[in-house]
Design goal:
The chain is of the alpha+beta class. The chain is built from eight helices and five strands. The longest helix has 20 residues.
């Protein structure tokens, strides 16, 4: 039987269950490593059958592609999800998500988008935007590098430590806290879907879950429209034929 062993300043273990090799490290004690090892062994042996190739043979980027195909049709705000997911797909040079709005009901569920995958061609950047795009690339270079590493990793190998690396890179680049939280949420939903729908099992739970050092959400702005602004806004609103855009004076 496999046993935890000392590695550096912490403890680690290796398992081979049903043809899958599992390695985990960074445990503070032998007891902690042993509990995690027994839990992983039990879950892999006794859990329900997994769909697809499983987390040990599917990269995060490929999993995101499958997730987008299955989940995004039902999300009203899927356009934002697609933009974040496509960053991981580009890292593997995979076809990217392309959404077309639709209005369908299937099996009692409303479908908002037709999800297709298209091969992106290198886009020509106008000369006027070259400097801007270059600056953007430099500002996001570290997070893009970490995102690429994540995309190439097998799903089973991704840990909280790896996700924290992306969070740290985004914060170091000065990204707003809302942006950081949205990036983390996309990863968390992917692993949640993989566990609930594909029945994939992850040692230690969702790596994008609760054990991350996240920035505090910035407080929303509280601003009151001035009288002058309201007067100018009212003039523009009155131009719209829709009676619900602005209140109308009813003739008596």
């Amino acid at each position: 039987m496999a046993k935890p062993y000392k590695e550096g300043k912490g403890w680690a273990f290796r398992l081979r269950v049903a043809g899958q090799d599992i390695y985990r490290c960074g445990f503070k004690s032998e007891a902690q490593a042993r509990r995690a090892m027994l839990s992983a062994e039990s879950e892999l042996n006794e859990g329900p059958a997994q769909s697809g190739l499983g987390p040990h043979r599917t990269s995060l980027g490929v999993a995101f592609s499958d997730y987008a195909r299955e989940r995004l049709p039902y999300l009203k705000g899927a356009a934002q999800d697609a933009r974040r997911i496509n960053r991981y797909l580009r890292a593997l040079k995979l076809p990217v998500v392309d959404l077309t709005p639709v209005q369908l009901v299937k099996d009692g569920k409303r479908i908002y988008w037709d999800v297709a995958f298209v091969q992106e061609h290198e886009r020509a950047i106008p000369g006027s935007l070259t400097e801007h795009r270059t600056r953007q690339s430099c500002e996001s270079a570290e997070s893009d590098l970490v995102r690429t590493r994540l995309a190439t990793m097998m799903m089973a190998d991704v840990t909280t430590h790896h996700v924290q690396g992306l969070i740290n890179a985004l914060r170091a680049e000065g990204k707003k806290s809302a942006t950081v939280h949205l990036e983390r949420s996309e990863l968390r939903r992917l692993f949640k879907h993989a566990r609930a729908v594909w029945k994939w099992r992850f040692v230690g739970g969702n790596p994008a879950g609760a054990d991350l050092d996240m920035p505090e959400i910035e407080a929303g702005r509280d601003r009151v429209v001035t009288n002058d602004e309201w007067q100018r806004l009212s003039v523009e609103l009155a131009k719209y034929p829709n009676p619900y855009v602005a209140p109308r004076n009813k003739s008596r």
